[in-house]
Amino acid sequence: MNRILVRSPWRKGVRGVLAAGLSALLIAAGLGGATAAAADYSQTAASLNASQAQFSFTPSTPARYVDIHYTGVPGVGQQNVRMTDNGGTWRHTVGSLSAGTVLDYWFTYEKSGPQYDTPHFTYTHGGSGTTVASPTFDPPGGSYPSARSVTLSSATTGATIRYTVDGSTPTASSTVYTGPITVSATSTISAIAIKSGSASSPVASASYTIGSTQATCPAQAEVPDFGPNVRIFDPGMSASSIQAKLDADFNAQKDTLTAQFTERRYAHLFKPGVYNGIHDNVGYYTSVAGLGQNPGDVVINGDVTVDAFNESDKGVALQNFWRSAENLAVVPSSGSTRWAVAQAAPFRRMDIRGGLQLYPASYGFASGGYTADSKVSGQTASISQQQWYTRDSSYGSWDGGVWNMVFSGTSGAPANTFPNPPETTLGTTPVSRDVPYLYLDGSGKYRVFLPSSRTNASGPSWANGSTPGSSLPMSQFYVVKAGDTAASINTALSQGCNLFFTPGVYHLNQTLNVTKANTVVLGVGYPTLVPDNGVDAMKVADVDGVRIKGLLFDAGTTNSQSLLTVGQAGSTANHSANPTTLQDVFFRIGGQIAGKATNSLIVNSRDTIIDHIWAWRADHGNAGTYGWAVNTGDTGVVVNGDNVLATGLFVEHYQKYQVIWNGQNGRTIFFQNEIPYDVPDQAGWKSPNGLNGYAAYKVGDSVTSHEAWGLGSYCFFNDNPSVNLYHAFEVPNRAGVRFHNMVTVSLNYKGTITHVINDAGAVTPPDTRPSNLVSYP
């Protein structure tokens, strides 16, 4: 098979939409709901006598049902019970308890149609009951030029906070917090929250450096020169002149055989206004975006299109990578916009005034995909798309599903029916912060908008007006263009500048070091960072609020230990109030050049949000750039930080574990994976535990809390079809580690996966049919 010509005919085995429902089973198992909002309910657990405890749940909105799930009763496995409604409070009594019995419990409840899952709670019979929420700090720890007044709080009503400032561990006899603490010198505040009848919270700490002077970015142009690869269109320009430029770029970038690994990159930016008769066909390494503050500020009466454009594509869109559309309103000429893409092709902040077709006009196969913060007034149809993830959006309706369709915070999404049809629907997204983006203000100056964080988010951030947030002037951004070096970029960072990368390929002979809190690194047109001589491409300090968006990291020919590292090893600072976000950040090992990197992404910082990445070890490309001993890469993503959330995680073809998750309280919504095609033999491809192969997604053995929804892993052992992977997902067997809605597939039946997760789930069947598992444990 020529993997340059056609990205694997193996993906041609499944068509159509599966039918039938498992909603009753999901309800009974307590699966598939979104993370609940604390304001939605109150809950209590109380001892009735020496052997019984009563659990109560009161929803703020009347519920059609409430289920309780619990583990820990001696000699009994997990129980899933429909609670009894008593005047709006739902109750259930658990027996067979003795002093010291510890129960892990949580609830699933209905609210206005969707169902929601609460966090897990702990009850100790005859003991301390539930655990108090840890204190939080406002402002968060960090470096400040002068004294700060720090407020402590706990989400647990009635809790008392005790704290220390001398580096010691706080106890129940430490100083009681009664009001804001003035921090006038460098110090660390450590605190616990205590409440009678509940277990004390874990210790939380925040370190403050006082008197440090942050560098100030030398003033940059507010209307900068974005270089030769950024096209800026104005509604005053003639449609014919705009179209001529769009067509020229598309003709250069459309061919899968010649443009997929070119170094040309472009951005098409439209100033606010209305554009009539414009048709932007989007080729490789091309970003299309509006320059309004909101999507409706730029209206295209025409089309923004991706299709299986080339004869060599043979009607499929399996290699339609590395292109994007953002922050536009489109009134499609035919009634529907076509966005038939594969990986690394985000569709963000789009207002489609019609339908959206995610499949090629030929109905050939596609392997996407990602939508966020968007609205489609008509129907969105996936049809031949193998998998897709939609976050915080609004659809008129949805049609389609092959293997793994996942939705969070999306109105108009289908019901939670995995696997028949294979739809996983969560009512909200637990935490989201939409991407930074370039726009023009009313005076004609460029600024970068920084959307605010949202918890339990649902629907587009701009649905009820402008996206909430703040903005920065371009005078605080260093614009990276052709001719810039690692030294010049690092100088700008050390001076306190944010970075705006224009389209191009940038070779780095030293690591880019992002050390300042709240730094923004924003790229358009797929700017590509290539580390030379084995350096790591970028490192981010363990600081608050860094935002990285729109970069492609392409491994150099000398091995790098990591392409991007967030936080130093052992980082423990709490960033929950202002996390680092990685969005539309892509990694490539091989394909363009014979790249090598042990790891693509390492996340050590707590609370990081990974929002749409594709980490890819190439299975095809330029001659001499791919092969088992050529483009080497052990692992795509390593997460060591606690409380990390991944929304849209695409990781493919690494030679060992695809994802290793060592941090506590991790969550993933949507995972797409392919195991490496080119494993030469079974004897040389066994994991440390002696099992065949390396799992696609491994949760560390010491992890006690982790949860994931909507995960797919596919094998295509093309070089040696006798190769087997024992299981796609490997996790510790603990009540706090829970996986929902998983699928494995053997593409064209090239090799097998014996189990879905651990020892559960059936072997992959022939004929490219899926093996599904609704829940584990």
TrEMBL record:
UniProt signal peptide: 1-19
InterPro entries, per the entry: CBM56, GH29D-like_dom, Pectin_lyas_fold, Pectin_lyase_fold/virulence, SACTE_4363
One family name in Pfam for this protein: CHB_HEX_C_1
Domain of life (superkingdom): Bacteria
Keywords: Signal
CDD domains linked: GH55_SacteLam55A-like
Domain CBM56: 36-125
Keyword Kinase: no
Record's keyword annotation contains Signal: yes
Molecular function terms from GO: carbohydrate binding
UniProt-recorded name of the protein: CBM56 domain-containing protein
Taxon lineage: Bacteria, Bacillati, Actinomycetota, Actinomycetes, Pseudonocardiales
